[in-house]
Automatic annotation (TrEMBL):
Domain of life: Eukaryota
GO MF annotation list: zinc ion binding
Name used for this protein in its record: SWIM-type domain-containing protein
Keywords: Metal-binding, Zinc, Zinc-finger
Biased composition, class Basic residues, residue ranges: 509-521
Length: 521
């Protein structure tokens, strides 16, 4: 075993393990924080709310003045939510801090088909009341804008909170967690495969019921309580019943799990809350560098075109972000595997019927309406993921269409997704705070590209630095002296002498909470 010898301080000339030295370093680091851990966190976030525009945080205290729940979201998270709020995914499986408190990441998916973080919650427990507080606080930070759909694991408390706070949002159970639960509760690998087939495959509702009944008879599970309970929840997990709802291709909370794995490089279970949050900020900066690199790649390079539908592929490459283009190109390639088995011309539309080569029992119908240049397919890929499907590309090929119809190109997947002037909700009915976040996000994206280029040369840096100072002064002059809206609800408050958090409570315990909110415009 490795040993380390300390020559000064409280250590004498004797051997100590690396663990002893780590404990000593932790002790020294904690001793430098004169106030409580909780006060340090409040001071840290209060300073950020003053110095960084649109930073938001909110927290609770229990009846003994211990630090309770915490939520925070910076300006980038809030502006990203203004653009990509259609889908929300979250779970709370991460506890790498000294208080063993679950960290909840509320995430979505951006125009590069990459994970974007909308906010964080550090919770004292996992009860219905705590999740309800988290979601309501999240909506306060996002000015009441609710997601169209939510993806979570099977946690009952979380489910009840979503139903209470976001009743209009379509809820989807994580397919990854569900597959694990099937194996745990039934313990039959063959049944698990059959269940996943019901969960993931394309079929009508009648076909689903027939396959379900056949599956239960095959495995003798007609009276299994867990299986019966899952059937009653089928509209929350079966692809058959979710094909009309947009999920941006998200079927599980694996994006949250991936973020958790990434955070392992920055945090560990010895960290107090203040150190834990600072390290998460570092990790968040690294994560966001990926979007800047993706933007740079889209603006400076072109993909290699390789399919037989060159016109359509090139149009996709010119408009979609690179990662989304790769998904669309795969659909174009699959056109070669389809055969048109029927075509019915009506007064105002034409309906095509397709089958996959070698699989006669899989049939899709695609309807083309020339007057409005729209395509509707029974596979519902566009409705669920926002991507044109292989069947629609087959129709485009049949009518010699060289460009993808604009109605079939979802704006949120394009390189212009964060251009404020083009977003759908930029209208008079849109609440002012959301429009402000959208403007901020659009400008931040464009400035990020400019800063990247400017940093590559000394002359570019000097010129950009000077122009930014001039433009900042000019924008300050244009800012209304008496703004109509203010994000700051009650001004910056600092509650002193807050006690450090207690260890995370088990499910079922409920604490009374007092509320404080700090935010700056």
């Amino acid at each position: 075993m490795d040993h380390i010898v300390e020559q000064s301080g409280s250590y004498s000339n004797v051997g100590h393990t690396k663990k002893d030295l780590q404990n000593r370093l932790d002790s020294i680091r904690r001793s430098k924080i004169q106030t409580s851990d909780s006060d340090s966190v409040i001071s840290y976030f209060t300073a950020k709310s003053v110095t960084k525009s649109n930073f938001f945080f909110d927290y609770t205290l229990d009846e003994y003045n211990h630090f309770g729940n915490l939520f925070w979201a910076d300006s980038t998270s809030r502006s990203d939510y203004a653009f990509f709020s259609d889908v929300l995914a979250f779970d709370s499986t991460y506890r790498t801090n000294v208080y063993r408190r679950p960290l909840v990441m509320l995430v979505g998916i951006n125009h590069h088909h990459s994970t974007t973080i909308f906010g964080f919650g550090l919770l004292c427990d996992e009860t219905v009341d705590t999740y309800t507080w988290l979601l309501r606080t999240f909506l306060v930070a996002m000015h009441g804008k609710k997601p169209k759909s939510v993806v979570t694991d099977g946690d009952k408390a979380m489910h009840k909170a979503i139903k209470t706070v976001m009743p209009e949002s379509v809820r989807r159970l994580c397919c990854w967690h569900l597959e694990r639960n099937v194996q745990t509760n039934v313990q039959d690998a063959n049944f698990t495969r059959a269940f996943c087939s019901c969960m993931m495959n394309f079929m009508t509702e009648d076909e689903f019921d027939l396959q379900w009944v056949s599956m239960l008879e095959k495995f003798g599970l007609q009276n299994n309580e867990w299986v019966s309970a899952m059937y009653s929840k089928r509209k929350q997990w079966a692809e058959t019943f979710l094909r009309d709802s947009f999920f941006a291709g998200i079927r599980s909370t694996q994006r949250c799990e991936s973020m958790n794995s990434y955070l392992n490089w920055f945090v560990h279970c010895r960290l107090k809350m203040y150190e834990f949050l600072k390290n998460i900020d570092k990790a968040l900066d690294r994560i966001r560098n990926t979007e800047t690199l993706n933007d740079y790649q889209c603006s400076t390079t072109k993909p290699i075109y390789s399919t037989h539908l060159l016109g359509l592929e090139k149009h996709a490459g010119q408009n979609y972000t690179r990662n989304v283009f790769f998904l669309v190109r795969e659909e174009i390639r699959e056109v070669a595997s389809l055969s048109i088995v029927n075509c019915v011309q009506d007064v105002d539309n034409c309906t095509y019927t397709f089958k996959k080569f070698g699989i006669a029992n899989l049939i899709w119908t695609t309807r083309f309406i020339p007057s409005i240049n729209q395509i509707h397919c029974s596979c519902k890929l566009f409705e669920t993921a926002g991507l044109p499907c292989r069947h629609s590309f087959s129709v485009m090929k049949a009518i010699d269409m060289q460009l993808i119809p604009s109605s079939f190109m979802l704006h949120r997947w394009t390189t212009r997704a964060k251009d404020f002037s083009a977003i759908k909700y930029a209208c008079e009915a849109t609440p002012t705070p959301i429009m402000e976040k959208a403007r901020y996000g659009s400008l931040s994206s464009k400035c990020g590209k400019m800063c990247y280029f400017a940093s590559k040369s000394d002359d570019g840096f000097k010129e950009a630095n000077g122009e930014i100072d001039k433009l900042t002064f000019r924008m300050q002059e244009l800012m209304p002296s008496s703004p109509i809206h203010s994000d700051n609800v009650s001004g910056v408050q600092h509650v002193h002498n807050v006690k450090d958090p207690s260890m995370a409570a088990t499910k079922g315990s409920v604490r009374r909470k007092k509320k404080y909110r700090c935010e700056a415009t």
